[in-house]
From TrEMBL:
Protein's name according to its UniProt entry: MYND finger protein
Database matches in SUPFAM superfamilies: HIT/MYND zinc finger-like (SSF144232)
Keyword list, A-Z: Metal-binding, Zinc, Zinc-finger
Domain MYND-type: 5-46
A single GO molecular function term of this UniProt record: zinc ion binding
Amino acid sequence: MILTCYYCTKELPSNQMKRCSRCLLVTYCSKECQTISWKASHKQNCKIHPSLVSPDDPNKAVSKAERPEKFTPEWIELEIDRALSRWMQLWRSCFQMYAWMCLDLANHPRERVMTHCMQLIVQPRNFEDDPAKQYFIVEASVVSIADVQARHPTLEVTIDPTDYTRMRFVVIMQNHLGEARRLRLVQWNDIGLEKKRQMDKADSASLGGDSPDSPWVQTLISAVDSMSPSEVEKMFGKKRS
Ligand SMILES: [Zn+2]
Ligand SMILES: [Zn+2]
């Protein structure tokens, strides 16, 4: 599997990359890139991965020695978290593109990015080796952020009411009984959003929309089902070597 350095965007096989040991979400080609990135911005965005939070102090990660032993129930829970993080990392830039598309920014007030987000309900696929295929999307929709917070009070969402460049999407992982097991929020800055707000209104409406029959919903679900992340990125004209 090829991963991209979070800082310099160099691409390398996953076994040559270094992963941030706190959030487990970002990878670097070198120690240098990791150090620069940490000082530049990652320090502010790096949250301890949910599976590594110390039971005694929510601001601390457990040490290697304190991690659960293999194949115990705690370890299985941790593996679920990691598989979900890995899956989200692989699809992240695809989901980001769908997230702005679905909000139909040209036909809504600028506050749209603060009040609404894309929500994906996902379920694990058992006995699947490809990390990009370990989850499938059951449901994709546009939801109000206030609703998400009301239903999941443990989810921390900090919204700066003056920041019109920040977008979000939520991933809820459920088991086969439909019970929510994990909840993740992705936030990122997109300086290109103003351009998307000025898109042709009809084009914007045809790409996005709140209805479950909106074309983006089926496109997204089937893309994640049958394509690889880089194929989807290519479809959107994003270059990847
Ligand atoms: Zn790098
Ligand atoms: Zn980190």
